[in-house]
Write a structure and sequence with these properties.
globular; single chain; alpha/beta; 9 helices; six-stranded mixed β-sheet; 293 residues; 40% helix
Amino acid sequence: MQNRQPGAAQPSGTVQPSVTALMAAAARAAHLIVDDEPRIFADPLAARLLGDRADELISYHTLHAAHPGLTGARVQVTCRSRYAEDSVARAAAGGVTQYVILGAGLDSFAYRGGLARRLRVFEVDHPASQQAKRAALAAAGIPLQENVVLVPADLAADPLMPCLARAGFDALASAVFGWLGVTMYLTADAVAETMTAIAGCAPGSELIADYLLPPDARDEDGALYGRLVAQASAERGEPWRSCCTPREIAGLARRAGLGAARSVGQRDTIAAELWRRTDSLRPAAWRSSSTVR
């Protein structure tokens, strides 16, 4: 989360969201335009948060809808978002009232109403990324909700829990932590450090995170997507820094004190009927999501 470029300064002095945040939002927005029913995940605010770059970034998907790098991106962001928000809904039904989004980027959960109104939502991100998020919300005419707290933190230097405590997080109450599209940009040590911090939270707390499989553990589609995105990420100054097998991620979680970890492949992050598709979206799989709970 904090080992990647948090934002790009523009000539006017404004700060733009990181390229990673922009690409993820563009993929969520494009899913509603490019792909067929049934929708895996609906983010009606994603295009608005892209601001004046929306047409440019979404056009990559509309012009090259079947490109493996772009279809892989749409599968990845929609599946992980659907899985995370379904998990948050189940936790809320069980009484959880806090949701912490680590590396929030342009995530729009807190601004889509519905379930978000019943939760205290903490968006944790680099201070520059938070500045860019505020600017994107303002430009889109989306008000910052009263139940949402933006927590500026550079977790490469700032311990997570003190930052949350200062923002009003209740350490005595359980919470769900969403950590999507981040771990691959961190070293294994940095991932373990954040896991250890979360492990100290109240019983019943849950971490939902996606992670990168090693090249030899990916199927053919996943391997191609990985090569394409790894090259693009490195070229834009946001290189991938770690990858893990399901066994390795379970070991990290256990040593951090999180207890049992369950890895879920893309196919199983959503209902089976959502894979009965007429478009080019297909789930990747491991050889032997990609999510830890």
